Amino acid sequence: MAIQRDMGKAAAVRRTGEVPRWHHEADVVVVGFGAAGACAAIEAAEAGRDALVLERASGGGGTSALSTGQIYLGGGTPIQKACGFEDSAEEMFKYLMASCGPGADEAKIRMYCDQSVAHYDWLVRHGVPFKQSFYGEGSYTPTDDCLSYSGSELAHPYCELARPAPRGHTVQQEGIEAGSMLMRALCAATEKSGARILVDCLVQTLVLDDAGQVVGVLMKREGAEEYVHARQGVILCAGGFINNKEMVNRYAPLLRKCRFRAASDGDDGRGIRMGMGAGGAAIRMDVGCIVLPFTVPKQLIKGILVNRRGMRFINEDVYQTTVGEAALLRENGEVFLILDNDIFERPFAPAEIAAVEGSVAELEKALAMPEGSLQNTVEVYNRHAARGEDPLFRKARDYLKPLVTPPFAAIDYTTKNSLYTVFTLGGLHTLPTGQVLTPDGEVIPGLYAAGRTTSGLAAQGYSSGLSLADGTFFGRMAGRHAVGLAVPA
Amino acid sequence: MAIQRDMGKAAAVRRTGEVPRWHHEADVVVVGFGAAGACAAIEAAEAGRDALVLERASGGGGTSALSTGQIYLGGGTPIQKACGFEDSAEEMFKYLMASCGPGADEAKIRMYCDQSVAHYDWLVRHGVPFKQSFYGEGSYTPTDDCLSYSGSELAHPYCELARPAPRGHTVQQEGIEAGSMLMRALCAATEKSGARILVDCLVQTLVLDDAGQVVGVLMKREGAEEYVHARQGVILCAGGFINNKEMVNRYAPLLRKCRFRAASDGDDGRGIRMGMGAGGAAIRMDVGCIVLPFTVPKQLIKGILVNRRGMRFINEDVYQTTVGEAALLRENGEVFLILDNDIFERPFAPAEIAAVEGSVAELEKALAMPEGSLQNTVEVYNRHAARGEDPLFRKARDYLKPLVTPPFAAIDYTTKNSLYTVFTLGGLHTLPTGQVLTPDGEVIPGLYAAGRTTSGLAAQGYSSGLSLADGTFFGRMAGRHAVGLAVPA
Residue A6 has what pLDDT? Predict the structure, then answer.
């Protein structure tokens, strides 16, 4: 899918005085046709308003279509109930407040938890298929199953702070790219809603009137500049900025080390820069979702993750984004997974074996770790694991087994040799209504944003499914608020 | 010193059409009369322009006057030479590039290193006194001495990446608040330069013309609103934002844990928000300078810093801001300094003793650390220290001494019980000329910023003296560029 590439002057907003004429008009103009844009357009169109979606690619989908199609939902959804899991909005709230911080947006988390079951129903009504089945754990299901623990719900300290429940709801489709099915459904629902869709349009910047209200956009279409008037609001749903190297250098230089960017080409920060140009504040721009995919097969969680100095730094059973954050930000992306022969299996995701040796002492030497360091780490771990305990990091009992059977192996999870996956979590500061705020915390009239163009549910501390939650739910809220409907529904 | 307090709508810029009349006029309007503002005004006034400084307090000084008066200077200053230290712009550059990143601003660092000796001369010419003497190490001198190692120059890995030299130049004054002497000198030089100074004026926001050029400011003075026309530019020198709770929550929530804010009341982010309102991008807003002052007396560096799990996490001889960053951001602000009886001394800065026990095993227990954790840490440390080595973190040989003599003590350096000191390092994105950039990297005509209102030399990884370096040097550059002089001088 080709997209128009242009890192140019998105923040250089135009004034109405500079508009020769409006080439198009709509009540609500939605920039970007991923999950957030689709849901915003559907809500506005179903309210009887003229919604116009502008997409730079030749069709809808965006990064959402490339995702695993997992949406974080809970509080007692029909699927959770059918699979025998108890959940409540309150427990979900407690988990998200504990895991999405510090700096988590309490108002968004509260609204999302309270509305999660209704949001599930809305998705189903709009053709998104979910199978009534429980898969297990992880950020994706290789089968067409639905429910899984997609965060750190079962791990310390979260399991003590909130009653665990699986809340990852993967859209029904065989294979790990269920996002394509989600977007097939949402694109169809958008068309059905009556919203108009224009593709191959690269929105350049916003148009403001003299009072600072956002009243339209300037776009490039078939080589020409065209102005689009938005009578009730513009909703920016244009993704994050991981594919804009300069912005990453400027705001989040630590993320540069991750080799795999989970994003479509369109994630070049254009939406964020447009919003900033109109006076919006971008917040938490340093934060990324950093995935270190080492937990398949699950068996491998029985190993211990150590840094260059042979020291453990985390309970290995927390979610792989929490591990990724710690490994990259605290340990400089230089970590190894230590296994003994009993638990050894080849990791599912590409990873190299750094060393295999007959003893921990030899492994320590082969990894050029300080003498005694890894040996002491394994000694302390084993001593407690033998009693089913991990007083250092509190890995769950199921994964505790002394590492005693030679040979011992180290899997290389350094950024250099393995696939850290990353996308950005920072973006425009918005109210739960999607209204974009200035650095003073004032609402910018006529301007909305949703999805990865915003700082959303997870200020940091990601659980899988939160980006599609941000996109689908807060896209809807923005679409509703822009046309004067109640928020939440 | 009373200041006008107002967290209000700094980003809500005015347009020239809204200006009833200009109450004041100047070539260059400088917002804030700390080190950056003084130096900007001096350069503009000495070029024969009409420079007007607006200060919210009743007199000049700002946070600079509250500081230790240490300026990071090098490359072979007269003081360095007189004290027998060799240095070059290149070695200084290598050190700053290694320590101020990732994300360090190479253009600023390059210019500053190349101009550092000339900048020293400029300061001396403008009445800033320095004594030709070497003090030692640290972020301040309790005496009136000048030179000290004020960063991690002597510590691993920096000592291997750049030839160490002391570059902290403390202004000559007895006591640790030499910043007051610096500002006495710079305020006098400002008056002498012919710049006009208005105090008790709270600048509210910027005034832009229809083309987006910054042409003035709106201020509140004696209860009335007054507009100030800036014919050649406005220079924002209004400090950081550590005293704006909402901004800290929004951009840098991790810094909330630090109990002591090294800042005057004026550091409420007003300058940054004004710049953002005019279209400027604020970058690295998550970063702070976090000081954990445990290295006086120096003897204490022979102890080992451990986290809640009894594990070391850093070489104890790096600079106290690097230790502070690691302790707060990686270890959640929960660290302890472990000492034996041979090296025990009471810390100079307030700190509590968490436990004193007859053995490391008992100390481990008293600190509720996992069984074996601290014991193994001390065992590995001692084994290598006995050979004069620290393969884990490479603390310098001088500080390596096995911890073997009971009783053993733990000093409490948790955020809860000790004085982590913090100020913000994020701010407006500027060129070395002081010109403020938009999110697209475009220059905003008429707008400059310097000092802690900007993201400066240290993207992170602070060394003491870098803020006064940012303020004095880039304040000067902004003043020069605004009136059309060459930058650098």
Answer: 55
Taking residues B295-304, what's their average pLDDT? 92
pLDDT tens digits for range A4-14: 555 689 999 99
Q: Does residue B59 contact residue B268 with C-beta atoms inside 8 Å?
A: no
Of the candidates B12, B376, B393, the beta carbon closest to that of A380 is on: B376
A81-90 pLDDT per residue, tens: 999 999 999 9
Q: Return d(Cα A71, Cα B257) in angstroms, integer.
A: 33
- In angstroms, rounded to a whole number, what is the distance separating the alpha carbons of residues B339 and B299? 10
> pLDDT by residue (tens digit) across B171-200?
999 988 899 999 999 999 999 999 999 999
Close Cβ partners of B385 (under 8 Å, ≥ 6 residues apart) = B400, B401, B402, B403
Instruction: Tabulate helix, strand, coil % of chain B (nearest 5).
Output: 30, 25, 45
The pTM for the full model equals 0.95
Residues A52/A24, Cβ–Cβ less than 8 Å: yes
**Residue numbers in A near B285 (CB within 8 A):** 283, 285-286
H helices of A61-127, where? 62-66, 78-82, 89-99, 106-125
How is chain A split among helix, strand and coil, in percent rounded to 5? 30, 25, 45
Neighbours of A484 (CB within 10 A): 11
Contact B391 A371 (CB under 8 A): yes
Tell which of A106, A392, A442 to mutate to test the B interface (max B CBs under 10 Å): A392
The confidence score (pLDDT) of residue B6 equals 55
- Per-residue DSSP letters for B372-412? THHHHHHHHHHHHHTTT--TTT---GGG-----SSSEEEEE
In order of B230, B302, B304, B339, B340, the CA distances from B409 in angstroms are 60, 13, 11, 5, 6
Residue B255 CA to residue B52 CA, distance in Å, equals 34
Chain A hits for B10, Cβ within 8 Å: 439-440
CB contact under 8 A, B253 and A103: yes
The SS3 of residue B317 is: coil
> B310: which 2 tokens?
């009894």
Model pLDDT for residues B273-286, shown as the tens digit of each residue: 999 999 999 999 99
Q: Give the Cα separation of B374 and A262 in Å (integer).
A: 40
The partner residue sitting opposite B429, judged by closest CB among A250, A309, A311, is: A250
User: Which site among A331, A380, A460 would you substitute to test the B interface, given the most B Cβ atoms closer than 10 Å to its Cβ?
Assistant: A380
Q: What is the pLDDT of residue B177?
A: 86
Q: Which residues contact B137 (CB under 8 A, 6 or more apart)?
A: B148, B149, B150, B154, B166, B295, B298
Chain B residues touching residue A282 (CB < 8 angstroms): 439
